[in-house]
Amino acid sequence: MSVYEYIGNLHVHTVYSDGKALHADVARAAGKAGLHFVVCTDHNVWVDGVEGYYENTLLLVGEEIHDVRLQPQSNHLLVYNTQTELSPKASAPQALIDEVNRRGGVAYIAHPFEYSSPVQPGLDAIPWTDWDVTGYAGLEIWNTMSEFKALMRNKLAALIYTTFPAWGITGPFQATLRLWDDLLAQGKRVAAIGNADAHGNEYSVGKSKRTLLPYDYLFRCVNTHILTERPFNGILEHDRALVYSALRAGRTFVGYDLPAPTAGFRFTARSGSNVALMGDEIVRTGATIFEIQAPDTAHIRLVCNGKTVVTEHGTALKHTTAEPGVYRVEVYRTYQLSRRGWIFSSPIAVV
Ligand SMILES: [Zn+2]
Ligand SMILES: [Zn+2]
Predict the structure, then answer these.
(1) 266-350 sits in which CATH class?
(2) E strand or H helix at 328, and its extent?
């Protein structure tokens, strides 16, 4: 089976909510960073009439929906492909997810776990709390702005990490990975996305104001890579359908593209004549053979039901097992003198 890979960012704010850029500027920044597509997800507003190609970058519109009356804030849901405003349903997450699915859309839970920052008002933790919901496609396991909020424990830390942002980007929160593994252990099919949550916001640091992580910088960091069975053809409707069907199927991996490009990573499973990609379920006929390819030498870890099954330092890992379970891959590498999360795959379920 031939597959095509596209790199995008699925969580971005514009001037229609609390971001600083217009859609055209977001598309330009995404193009500059080498992304194939970008999805603007403003808070509680679905913006019509801006989707399309901006030069070579596909810009789509989703929405980040939450109940504005909830204090403290929780339960931010990323909603894709509904082509209509759904924020009036924000107060009931399950009804909202059901409505998204009824309309052929796809829902992902945004920043499921967060730490607050005391450095300025408005940097409270906004976790997901309603874990009984079903019908969402996955979790945003890595959100760069969430990671930054956690790093800004005091003014000095804020100054350091706004000046040297790459020092602070290390990987998804362990608590998020544990949450994810718990959901997988419950038999839920939960894929992974990773995004910028870019706003282009300015922060006061001492007497100066600086932009914390501009859009184009963030688009070079944590992105979602999708696998499709057909290539993009430059037509909005065709390519939009490919993006959202990959998101629905969980044919995704999260790549931190700043240390080195993560494009080309692959995780497949074979059992007899059955073949599975990330996001798939595979029915065992005897043993299952996993093959993992990393685009560069790195520390590869195959994880099943929250436990490391096997590790390898190199560009490939092959593992044969008779055991059922939900398998996913983590890849780490050293960058700027410390270990960084580099690639996190969506799981393959072996049944
Ligand atoms: Zn949010
Ligand atoms: Zn957001």
Answers:
(1) mainly beta
(2) strand 325-335
- Average pLDDT on 36-55 reads 98
**Average pLDDT, rounded, for the chain:** 96
By the 8 A CB rule, do 25 and 38 touch?
Answer: no
How far does the centroid of ligand 1 lie from the alpha carbon of residue 79, in Å?
A: 12
pLDDT digits (tens, 9 = 90+) for 283-319: 999 999 999 999 999 999 999 999 999 999 999 999 9
CA of 293 to the centre of ligand 2 (A): 32
Start-end of CATH 2.60.40 domains in the chain: 266-350
pTM of the entire predicted model: 0.97
Of 47, 55, 66, 64, the closest CA to residue 10 belongs to 64
Give the whole-number percent of the chain exceeding pLDDT 90: 91
Beta strands at 191-195 and 138-143: parallel, antiparallel or unpaired: parallel
Cβ neighbours of 123 (radius 10 Å): 18
Distance from residue 94's CA to the centre of ligand 2 (Å)? 20
pLDDT tens figures, 1-36: 689 999 999 999 999 999 999 999 999 999 999 999
Helices (H) then strands (E): counts for the chain: 8, 20
Q: What are phi and psi of 238, to 5 degrees?
A: -65, -50
Average pLDDT over residues 181-199: 97
Q: How far is the CA of 110 from the centre of ligand 1 (A)?
A: 6
Residue 276 near residue 250 (C-beta atoms within 8 A): no
**How far does the centroid of ligand 1 lie from the alpha carbon of residue 147, in Å?**
12
Span(s) in the chain for CATH 3.20.20.140:
4-256
Architecture of domain 4-256: Alpha-Beta Barrel (3.20)
* Cα 75 to ligand 1 centroid, rounded to whole Å: 8
12 CA to centre of ligand 2 in angstroms: 6
